[in-house]
Amino acid sequence: MILSRLARRPLLLAAGLVLALALPWMIYPPVALDMACWALFAAALDLLLGFTGLLSFGHAAFWGGSAYAAALIAVHSGLPFPVAALGGAVFAAVLALPIGYLSVRLRGIYFAMVTLAFAQMVYFVVNQWRDLTGGENGLQGVPRELFGLDLSDSFVFYYAALPLLLAGFVAVWRVVRSPFGRVLVSIRDNPARAQALGYPVERYKLLAFVLSAALSGLAGGLFALGHGFASLESVYWTTSGQAVMMVVLGGIGTLWGGVIGAGLVVELNDYLVTVGFDGIGIVTGTIFVIIVLVFRRGIWGTARDLLAARTGRRRPGEPGSGDTQDGAPARTPGVGTPV
Amino acid sequence: MDGPVLRAQGLAKEFRGFRAVDGVDLDVADGSVHALVGPNGAGKTTLFNLLTGFLKPSAGRILLGGRDLTGSRPEQVARLGVARSFQITSLFPQMTPREHLELALAGGTGLTWRFWRSHRLLDRFGDRAMELLDQVGLAGHAGTPAGTLAYGHKRALELALALALDPRVLLLDEPTAGMGAEDVERTVELVRKVRAGRTVVMVEHNMSVVSSLADRVTVLQSGRVLVEGPYAEIRHDPRVISAYLGDADAGH
Questions:
Q1: What is the nearest CA distance from A11 to chain B, expressed in angstroms?
Q2: Per the CB 3.0–4.6 Å rule, which of B24, B35, B72, B251 could disulfide with B11?
């Protein structure tokens, strides 16, 4: 089990990296950039949903808030785009601090509703503050350059942004597999017990919220810079909903599931737009319902379970941790055990 | 046994007009094993939740040493040296016992805020974790997800978790609940072993456990203290017999 895991992980990572590098050759480059940004957004959201047990329905505030912040930085200061993107991420983190502080003490649907409400407030402000944000026209003509190099070609921008996006993925992975991540999982599974062990649960949730927002902001900022404009839609609640949908499709608490979900949803949206189909919501909604009904752990989660069941059967009674008399894998694969 | 280490004064908790705990005074002597007994609904678990900060009292005060604990949050109470176990086994199903204990031992070190480090940082608590697991007889199951452990093992892990905090006061909520005779005996032995240097407060229904462990017993009924004293004394108290022990002894 452990050996096969070790053998599998670099292979998967290498495959992912190759795919990330080859993506703009395979599909329309702006769509490739969409996928990569949404993938990071979904992974960052999964940090909260899958590993802390908080369903945020207001992450558009951070994705979109950072989109505007990054665009404004680029427009008004002319700083290189990575600085603008990181500035957007910092803005998202700062924005997340009061929102998180006021909402992490709520649970379940109440947390979702309050984060949604805050995100709608952000949407309202962005919509009303026309002088700064351009209102419903969005913020257009955002420059993309790096040391005099023009990156307005999406193909080029994709490769310029990829290191930042990959760093974002590494950050999510690091947080999940850190001592802090261990506490998050314990809070997700049993908050009262975590408290009894001396952990201030709400402060841990708040830091998780801020980290998730910052990484969502990094993705949103790069998205806006890459397209050359920040749109009002990026702070609208449908953006939050789409990110949640991607995570659920791919598998909550799987980390990489959100990446798959993002790829799928973006590709599907693009296809439906290209063929001129109007009812995108109906199609994505139907697929969403089917996948949730058939694969309850999402695409990645289901695939991993199948794989674990097979390796478990092929190598019964593998000496390892714990009592595996019945040949079951020592660690039940499930939420919170990223491959 | 000096003065009281844990003290409740006029402690009360009201739930929508119902007083689950109604003006309880409790003095737990330093180094003693103090049992809380009483029929179901007497307010024992509510009292526990008040003492550990999981519930805020409607009235009254809680003192640890000279320090006022009233209104403290559960994690603060835990940090100040009052650890509890739960009546209904309360664990992290996907984590192994070893991971549980590493987490318990790491609390308060600040290491768990380091989101930029590998979780292998917690390996430094591995030795102490294994020691504790060994102490409660779980060393052989250190790597099994807690969700799949047998009931007795889960209870043992409960106890190990509370011990990992190295508390001054250990609050055990029905440590032998649902156990077979053999496990009960082991648990009694274990409590006897770990009480050295600490104070133990336990809610317990099993009177033979109470008689063999407790220095003092407080009998609760309807949220009030009915009587308090050494086991040998209170077991003959007619009020106690009619309220509780009468029923329990009838079964023996």
A1: 21
A2: B24
More confident residue, A220 or A138: A220
Beta strands of B33-188 (E only): which ranges?
A: 33-37, 59-64, 67-68, 82-84, 169-173
Phi, psi of B216 (to 5 degrees): -135, 150
Q: What is the dihedral of CA B104, B105, B109, B113, to 10 degrees?
A: -40
Residue B49 burial by Cβ neighbours in a 10 Å radius (0-12, 13-18, 19+):
buried
Domain spans, chain A? 27-237
Best probe of the A interface among B92, B101, B116, B173, by most A CBs < 10 A, is B92
Chain B neighbors of A179, CB-CB under 8 A: 106, 111-115, 117, 119, 121-122
Identify any residues that bridge with B217 across adjacent strands, giving them in sequence order: B35, B229
Give the HSE-up count for residue B115: Cα atoms under 13 Å, Cβ half-sphere. Answer: 20
pLDDT tens per residue across span B38-82: 888 888 889 989 999 999 999 999 999 888 988 899 999 988 889
CB A162 within 8 A of CB A36: yes
* pLDDT at A333 > cutoff 70: no
Contact call for B144 and A321, based on CB within 8 A? yes
Q: State the pLDDT at residue A325.
A: 34
CB contact under 8 A, A335 and B94: yes
Nearest to B143 among A175, A321, A336 (CB): A321
What amino acid occupies position B220?
A: L
Q: Do B74 and A196 touch (CB under 8 A)?
A: yes
- End-to-end Cα separation, chain A, in angstroms: 12
Instruction: Give ipTM to 2 decimals.
Output: 0.83
Contact A189 B99 (CB under 8 A): no
pLDDT above 90 for A216: yes
List Cα–Cα distances, A274 to A36, A158, A280, B220, in angstroms.
20, 21, 11, 74
pLDDT, tens digit (0-9, with 9 covering 90-100), for A224-274 = 998 888 888 888 888 888 899 899 888 888 888 889 888 888 888 888 888
The sign of the dihedral angle between the CA atoms of A259, A261, A262, A268 is: positive
Q: Among all residues of chain A, which has the CA nearest to that of B121?
A: A179
Confidence at residue B98, expressed as pLDDT on a 0 to 100 scale: 92
- Strand ranges inside chain B, DSSP E: 4-15, 18-29, 33-37, 59-64, 67-68, 82-84, 169-173, 199-203, 216-221, 224-229
**In angstroms, what separates the C-alpha of A96 from chain B's closest C-alpha?**
17
Does residue A180 sit at the B interface (CB-CB below 8 Å)? yes
Does residue A322 belong to the interface with chain B, where contact is any CB pair within 8 Å? yes
pLDDT band for A326, please (50, 70, 90 cuts). Answer: very low
DSSP for A17-74, please give it: HHHHHHHHHHS-HHHHHHHHHHHHHHHHHHHHHTTT----S-THHHHHHHHHHHHHHH
Count residue pairs from A and B with Cβ separation < 8 A.
123
Identify from B115, B116, B120, B166 which residue to disrupt to test chain A contact, counting A C-beta atoms within 10 A and taking the largest count.
B115
Strand-by-strand arrangement of the B224-229 sheet:
B82-84, B169-173, B199-203, B33-37, B216-221, B224-229
Query: Residue A10: pLDDT band by 50, 70, 90 thresholds?
Result: confident
